[in-house]
Design brief:
The protein is mainly alpha-helical and about 110 residues long. Among the domains are: about 50 residues; about 30 residues, no CATH class. Helices cover about 50% and strands about 0% of the residues. The protein has 6 helices and no strands. The longest helix has 22 residues. The radius of gyration is 23 Å and the shape is elongated.
């Protein structure tokens, strides 16, 4: 079974997020701004009533931000059974993870702990 994540021994271990892990820098902020503007213009071009919005459609493909495109591939699907666990508690969450990893997917316990 997985160790209870609420114990104080977990503090400072790998896996705890800090603000530095989730805050973006100026380069990422510029990329996000470009993507937001692109989507806003694409919505205006698609649904805008004025003629000048419709003329933007041809220009959109040239301005599409390219960033780490994922190659088209078939994803593996792992259907999971419904479980009568209380996911509002730590114990219930642990039971769900154990059931999924060990029972339903057959992943050995030592692989899960890595």
């Amino acid at each position: 079974m997985l160790r209870d994540p609420s114990t104080p021994a977990r503090l400072g271990q790998k896996g705890i997020l800090s603000w530095n892990d989730i805050l973006i820098g100026p380069e990422e902020a510029k990329i996000m701004d470009d993507i937001f503007v692109y989507h806003l213009v694409s919505i205006l071009a698609e649904y805008g009533e004025q003629a000048h919005f419709r003329t933007m459609r041809s220009q959109l493909d040239q301005k599409l931000p390219q960033l780490h495109r994922i190659k088209l591939h078939q994803s593996k699907v792992y259907p999971l059974a419904a479980m009568p666990q209380n996911e509002a508690s730590l114990r219930g969450n642990r039971q769900v993870i154990d059931s999924i990893a060990h029972t339903q997917l057959g992943i050995p316990e030592d692989e899960v702990r890595k």
